C-alpha cells in the first residue's frame, strides 16, 4: 500500500516505514562509511597489537629450553609462548615434588646440615617459611605474562578479522545504494 506525503511543495510517494530514494541512499552511505571507518580502525588496531606484542617478546630475549615442546627457539609468537609457559610449569612441578602452591604447607621444619630438624628450647621443630612455595610465585608470574602475550595475539587476530568483515560489510552497503539517475523525489 503506497501513501503520498506532502513536504512543503513536494509530494513523496512510498511505502510507510521504508526509506525512499535519496533518504535510503543517505542511510546506506552513512552506514557504509561508518562500517569502513570502524573496520579500518579495527584492522589497524589488530596489526598494531600483534606487532607490539612481537616487539615486547623480542625485547625479553627468551629462548625455549631443549626439553620444551618447541626446543631452543626464540619466544616470539603464541606457539613459542605456550611452549615456554608449559615447560615452566613442568620444571616447577619437578622442583616441588609434583605439588602446586596451594598443596604445599606454608611453613616447614628448619633442617640442619645433616638434614635433621632443628629443635627449639621446648624440643619442638623450628618452623620456617616454605621456600619451595616461592618457586610457584615466580613460575605463576612468568606463565601469566606469557599467557597474556598469547591472549594479546588472539585479541589482535580477532580485531583484524572483525575489521576485515566490517570493511566487506561497508563495501556491500555502499554497493546497495541506487545510482543517482534512478532516484526520484
Shape: elongated
Give the overall pLDDT as a whole number: 90
Number of helices: 3
- Counting helices, strands and paired strands, the structural category is mainly alpha
Poorly predicted ranges: none
Strand order of the largest sheet: 1-2
Largest sheet: 2 strands, antiparallel
| Radius of gyration, taken over Cα atoms and rounded to an integer in Å | 32 Å
Strand fraction band?
A: 5-15%
Tally of strands: 4
Provide the succession of SSEs.
EEHHEEH
Please report the distance between the alpha carbons of the first and last residues: 18 Å
Portion of residues within helices: 55-70%
| Whole-number total of structural domains | 1
Describe this entry's structure for a reader.
The mean pLDDT is 90. This protein has one domain. 56% of the residues lie in helices and 9% in strands. Helix 2 (78-95) runs antiparallel to helix 3 (131-175). The protein is mainly alpha-helical and 185 residues long. It is elongated. The strands form two sheets. A two-stranded antiparallel ribbon has the order 1-2. Strands 3-4 form a two-stranded antiparallel sheet.
Secondary structure layout plus pairing:
Elements: E1 3-7, E2 10-14, H1 21-60, H2 78-95, E3 107-109, E4 127-129, H3 131-175
Antiparallel strand pairs: 1-2, 3-4
Helix pairs in contact: 1-3, 2-3
